[in-house]
Every structure is written in C-alpha cells, then in structure tokens.
Amino acid sequence: MKHGAMTITHKSESDKDSSTPVRTGSIWALLTRNTVFNLLGRILPMGIAVVCIPVVVDGLGTEPFGVLTLAWMVVGYFGIFDLGVGRATTQFVARAIENNRQGDLPTVVWTSLMMLIVQGIIGAIAVAAAVPWLVKDVFTIPAGLLDEAERSFMALALSMPFIIGASGGRGVLEGHNRFGLVNAIRIPASTFNFVSPVVVLLFSQSLFYVVLVLAIGRAAVFIAFTIAAIKSLGRDWRPRTPRGALAKELLGYGGWITVTNMVGALMSFGYIDRFVVSSRLDMSAVAYYSTPFEMVTKLLFLPAALVMSLFPLFAACGMERLNDLRDLMRRSLKALMVIVAPIVILVVAFAGPGIDLWLGAEFRIESTLLLQLMAVGILMLALGTIPSGAIQAVGRPDLTAKRHIVELPLYAVASWWAAGAYGLTGVASVWLGYATVDVIVLWIISARLIDYDRSIVNRDNGWLLFSVIVVTGLAFGLTAIPGIVLRSTAVLVTLVLVTTGFWRGLMTDADRAGFIRLLGRLNRRRSESGVEV
Question: What domains appear along the chain, each with residue ranges and CATH number?
C-alpha cells in the first residue's frame, strides 16, 4: 500500500508470520518528520510559557492566578466528555484509507464532528451546573474573588463544545498523517494561551477578561481544526447525516480509551501516590514526593510524541499486516530506548547536585533517591507506550483498559502499605515496580494479540530488559563518583559507551542500514526550502 509519503509492503495471510521486515523506505522518514513536528508542538509552547507565566502572575496577582490555574484544571478534567472519540476517529480514518474505503470518510468525519459537538454541549452544561458548588464549596477562594471567579468559570464552561469538538478535527488530520498541519494549528494555539493574558493585562487586570479571551481562542482553534478536517475530504466535503451504528462504534472504541486514560493516570502520574502520602505521612512529604515526580514525568512528552505519530501507522497495518506491525513495534521500542536511556542516566547521575542547586539541601536529602527511582520508572513507562498504542490501534482498546482496572486495586494497596512501612522510598519503589510489571504485561498482551513470539521475554524484549538493567546499574554507579567535574567526565564516557553498545548490540543489521539510509535522506533534504505538511 502506498499513501502519500508512507510505503508499507503488503503481506498475504500465508506469509504473515515470515520474518520479512517492512520496507524502511519513506515510512521512517515520515515517522521521524511527524515525531519532530509533535515534539516542536510541545516544546515551543513550554518555552513561551516559561517567559509569560511570571508576567501573568505579576499582573493578575497570586490569588487570581491561582483561580485561573484551577479553572484550567477543571476544564481539563471535564475534557473526559470527549469519551475517546477523537482517538477513535484517528483509528477509523486510518483504517478507511488503508483499505481504500475513502468513500466512507465523509460519514466518519461528519459523524465524529457532530458527536463531539453534542458531547461538548453536555460537558458545558455539566461544568456550568457545577460552577457555583466548585467556587463556593470545593475551592478555597477569597471572598473578594468569588464573583469574578464564578464568571470566569462560566466563560470556560461555555468553551467546552469548542474544546471537545476540536479533538474530532485533530483526529481526522492525524488519521491522514497530517501532523505538520496539526502542529501548525497547535503551536499558535498553545502560544495564544500564554501570550493573550499578557496582552489583556496591558488593558485590564480583570481575571474574567483574561479567561474570556482564552475561551475565544479555543473557539478559533475549533474552527481551524474543523475547516482543515472538512477540506481533507476534497470534493466530498458536504455534510452527511450521522449514522447511529457508526456513532455506537466510535463510542465503544473511545469508551475504553477513556477508561485507560482515567485509570492509568491515577497510577502513571502519581495521583494515588500523592493521596496516599498526604494521608499516611504529612504535607511536607507530599512536597518532597510531588516535586521530583512533576519534574520527571515531563520526560514522557518524548514517547508521547512518537506514539502519536505511530498510532495511524499502527492502525493502517491492523491485523492484516502483522509483519509490518511487528517491525514498527520493534524498531520504535529500540528508538525509544536509544533516546530515553541517556536522559535517564543524566537524571540519575546528577539528581543530587541538581536538586541541591534548584531547591536546596533539605530537598536534596529527601528527594534525590525518589527522583532516581522515578527516572528509571519513566524509562519503563516509555517502553510500554509502544505496545499500548499498537494494541489500541488494531482495535482492542478494551485490553489496555482491563489491564489497568486489574492493576489499580493492587497498586493502591501496595502503595498504602509501603508508605506506612518504608515511607517515601517505599511509595516510589512501588511506583517503579508498577511501571516494570505494566510494560511486561503489555508485551505479553501484544505478543498474544499479534502472534509475535509468545515467550514472555523474546530476543528483542530480552535485550531491552537487559539494557534497562545495565543502564540503571551504570547510572547509580556514577553517583558514587565524587566531584562534579570527575562525575561529568565519567557520565560523558558512559553515554558514548552506552550509545555504541546500543548501536552494536540492540540494533540489527537491518536497523543500522535503515538508520543510515534515513540519515542520508535527511542530509539531502536539509537544503530544501520547505517541508510538506
């Protein structure tokens, strides 16, 4: 099959278990390009936020800014009214294109868009109904800010149809592998979220007007994504009547995605941990635990950018092209290992000096080991994103959701016990254990689902686990080297050795050859004036 810049070889049912790999061709250039776009879409707004947020805090004041962050949090949480339909849309669009069913795309697109608008309206009503209760009873908001806070929350509630509706248009574009266009919209939109309050503060210090302008920006993003999605239909852009059966399929698929996201976040992002720490220990312990956790989980934007690019490719392969799916998984896992492992070594090796410089000696004593354990856990979570994305993309999001449902009570009990028995180190160790067990479970599920070497530790995954153990041992060993100069030198040497080891031991001849060809293509394209989106 050939679609745009992507080339995937077709495999018949009779040879689906052969070892013939997917052609590296332009699919790897496409994947690299899309991942770079996704990284830019996350990194550039973060840099702008660093500059703008202090200005907004100074202009609004600490308490109004706190209300603004609470409003953002509430709207973000009620984003669950998307019900996973945005991700489902990506999967359905990618499958329709792969199977040459472009005639189905208008119905898929219009059904998804209209569903999400309705869901957004329901979300808006729910948020608006909850605003008085949230403002007066849940959040501790100063009396002088109550009226303005309530108006601000209402303004954001009214933007819910736009916030949720935008995920439909974005899902359509991602299904077409149009990540350049997705981020061409996302980057200005995210920039607007931080720059517009600064501009508003030049004329008014009202929190309500800041939030109102942000809500208008959400509407503009919705319009941009919707227009782009409709234009992707070409001459078949005219509205179609939503189909009930298709809507049911989208909700069925998306519902499991929602369960995965909600339940998984309780563990992966440490929400249960922080509840346990605050209940079993004290609020100072929450600070010692949450601060390194917030730092290290930011590293997950790297695998998130890659998996976002991989998802439509996984969906295009489906269960019909298992060799292609396996090859994408193998090489993507290795790529993540090569990218994330050196970062983990740096974090573990310099955790103590870094925390000391940033937060002082007290945090260094309490949080250094926590940060180191969490960094290793992030490496395991990163390796789990690939099989999780593949399982969902081939149409079995229920499997990833059910594994979280089983893990959740076990994890909660283990964290509660560890907090009382071993304190913060115990809680962090349980989290690392969860991340390790979870990736093995995902490997087993994906192996059984796609018939990919059903042994728990096959050659590729065995090498990956061995690599994690080596990386962890080296990283902690480096912490024993005294003196920042000597340690830095040792870290540099270690990174060179680890990278060389991955190149020779983790990657096969086919991987190395494909990587070299990819570098050659990228080098030839450096002089080109633009990038196709």
Answer: 31-254 (1.10.357), 266-509 (no CATH)
